[in-house]
Amino acid sequence: LKAALFTTSTAAIMLSSSGALGVAAGVIATNNAAFSDLAVANNWNEITAGGVANGTPAGGPQNNGAFTYGGDHTITADAVDRIITAINVAGTTPVGLNIAQNTVVGSIMTGGNLLPVTITAGKSLTLNGTNAVAANHGFDAPVDNYTGLGNITLGGANAALIIQSATPAKLTLAGNIDG
Q1: What is the tally of structural domains in the chain?
Q2: d(Cα 147, Cα 164) in Å, to the nearest integer?
Q3: Which of 53, 113, 133, 150 is the most exposed place for a label (fewest CB within 10 A)?
Q4: Which of 123 and 112 is assigned the larger pLDDT?
Q5: For residue 67, is it within any domain?
Q6: Model confidence at 177: pLDDT above 50
């Protein structure tokens, strides 16, 4: 019985921290940062339900997590095949998102300013539009919402922007595509 309780408790903790129990996992950038940053780099913090840093260092965004720009920063997507449910750039003038590894994003939200994106040669940014985030870490992100996506620069041979929307509605991109 003791082993069964431990196993059940461990599973509940694992589900809770993974976001499977309805709590979206997310972090907020407090400096220029990379997806691969560990908590000791102090470039990411855990995020409160109100959408602000709570002062506790965290690692970069994980698969099926979301992240918020906590200032005017550059973020490097350097983790292979990372799936990000949503990015929030509200309240900032983001310097940019550099796609250094293939990355999938569900939505990019804004309060007015746009996120410029540079895609490295041979890498891709996929807008899959199938993920959404509830306001339990500072912002709502409905599916297929890219109102925060700015200019996209294709940075060399085979750099790709891929749109795989699950809905038949049109997507509107606010920025230019260069490259």
Answers
A1: 1
A2: 16
A3: 113
A4: 123
A5: yes
A6: yes
